[in-house]
Amino acid sequence: MPLTFADAGEEHIVRKISGKPEVKKHLENLGFVAGSEVIVMNVIGGSVIVKVKEARVAISREMAQKIMV
Fold it and tell me: What is the pTM of this model?
């Protein structure tokens, strides 16, 4: 399921990143790689706050839809 469907506070494992190569590379640089653990902290407006690799990252809802957990 896309990360946008995950409830706040739930821990998930990234299964796959979809999208164009530039988008995949950008998300990889932020720490979103297959097998990594992510926790949705909050959803504010059009942004999703995610904890990944001990850092909190805000990504757009469109980016979060490309992350499959």
Answer: 0.89
